[in-house]
Backbone:
């Protein structure tokens, strides 16, 4: 297989295609959630990873996951009752805190058992600032400025910088500085790149390259699609699994050197399918996909990828833009609309599936080029993912669930 800017990736175990390919994952699905007998509500390795990261017992970790789900349900109920949140995030203690517009709304939120605050800025204002920085970056890619995105907890737009020696980076930081305390600059980060390597095992191939398989979804007529990272299907290739065609890419929003969104889809050929569970690479049974409700910032999160396997952490923030450096000498690319996380990834994990509880969250987009995940499930690190719900909404698709 050839290696080039085509970000070679692999198909994630447990999310593959033909009936024979997914039979092993399907045989295990009853062990997830409410399958059979006394099955746990959450994948055991996710619970253990969360317990280790928090320094608590596994019982306490399960309670934390339950509390996260309950609090997000309460927030949804508040929205249906007419209270419009200006963003929400989990604190380190696990309390869902809601940005409100005034003290009266804050009291109603607190009465519902959630945290509340009236922020100096809030999500809407921060999103507007971040959009202006996006527009500025379109004119000239700020190489050296890794990422910029809304950080609800600190009520700022956070800008991560690897190097500010270049003229474009200096101009971008000068523009960011115009917003005063609304923008927080964090220096000392590594450059970012889409993550890809050739994988000799299960894989999705196209035109001599390799990529990961993402989530399955369908349109209103029932037609089946693969939802994946956009840079995997940039040129709309025919996709193959085990040397047999299974899909044809139809759309991608990724484009080198321009303002990009790392989402794309492929139409699945008749007779093929994508499993509705996420493989955990030997760390227990596969995780059944029950939906795609977006987890709030601070929520527990795990991902499956061919290089680092099953790694866990938490959601950091959403609405993040990054500058990807092409390791093959191509143009740097600004990618917008990503989520960031403390989940460790390495080259080859791109396209891997992120999941929180049983809710699908997205696909690996990229991460620090020199990052090494040496702690197994609990490896410390960071990564960026394309939120699944945004891709489903953009393409008018519904996630296939277990």
Residues:
């Amino acid at each position: 297989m050839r290696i080039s800017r085509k970000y070679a990736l692999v198909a994630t175990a447990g999310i593959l295609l033909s009936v024979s390919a997914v039979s092993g994952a399907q045989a295990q699905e009853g062990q997830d959630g409410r399958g059979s007998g006394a099955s746990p509500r959450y994948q055991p390795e996710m619970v253990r990873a969360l317990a280790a990261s928090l320094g608590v017992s596994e019982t306490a970790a399960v309670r934390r996951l339950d509390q996260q789900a309950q609090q997000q349900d309460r927030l949804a109920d508040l929205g249906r009752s007419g209270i419009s949140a200006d963003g929400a995030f989990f604190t380190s203690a696990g309390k869902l805190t809601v940005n409100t517009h005034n003290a009266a709304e804050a009291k109603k939120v607190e009465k519902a058992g959630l945290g509340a605050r009236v922020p100096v800025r809030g999500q809407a204002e921060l999103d507007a600032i971040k959009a202006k920085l996006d527009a500025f970056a379109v004119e000239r890619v700020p190489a050296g400025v890794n990422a910029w995105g809304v950080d609800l907890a600190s009520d700022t737009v956070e800008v991560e910088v690897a190097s500010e020696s270049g003229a474009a980076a200096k101009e971008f930081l000068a523009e960011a500085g115009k917003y005063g305390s609304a923008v927080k600059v964090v220096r000392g980060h590594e450059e970012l790149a889409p993550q890809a390597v050739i994988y000799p095992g299960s894989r999705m191939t196209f035109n001599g390259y390799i990529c990961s398989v993402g989530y399955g979804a369908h349109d209103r007529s029932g037609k089946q699609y693969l939802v994946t990272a956009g840079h995997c299907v940039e040129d709309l290739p025919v996709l193959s699994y085990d040397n047999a065609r299974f899909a044809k890419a139809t759309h991608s929003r990724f484009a080198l050197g321009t303002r990009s969104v790392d989402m794309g889809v492929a139409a699945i050929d008749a007779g093929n399918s994508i499993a509705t569970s996420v493989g955990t690479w030997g760390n227990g049974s596969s995780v059944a996909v029950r939906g795609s409700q977006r987890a709030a910032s601070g929520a527990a999160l795990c991902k499956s990828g061919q290089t680092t396997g099953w790694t866990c952490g938490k959601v950091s923030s959403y609405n993040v833009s990054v500058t990807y450096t092409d390791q093959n000498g191509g143009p740097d690319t600004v990618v917008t609309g990503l989520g960031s996380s403390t989940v460790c990834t390495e080259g080859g994990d791109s396209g891997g599936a992120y999941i929180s509880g049983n809710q699908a969250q997205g696909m690996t987009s990229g991460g620090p080029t020199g990052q090494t995940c040496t702690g197994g499930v609990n490896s410390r690190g960071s990564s960026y993912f394309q939120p699944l719900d945004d891709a489903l909404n953009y393409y008018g698709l519904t996630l296939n669930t277990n």
Remarks:
- Helices lie at 19-28, 44-54, 58-80, 103-111, 123-139, 167-177, 388-395.
- The radius of gyration is 20 Å.
- The longest helix spans residues 58-80.
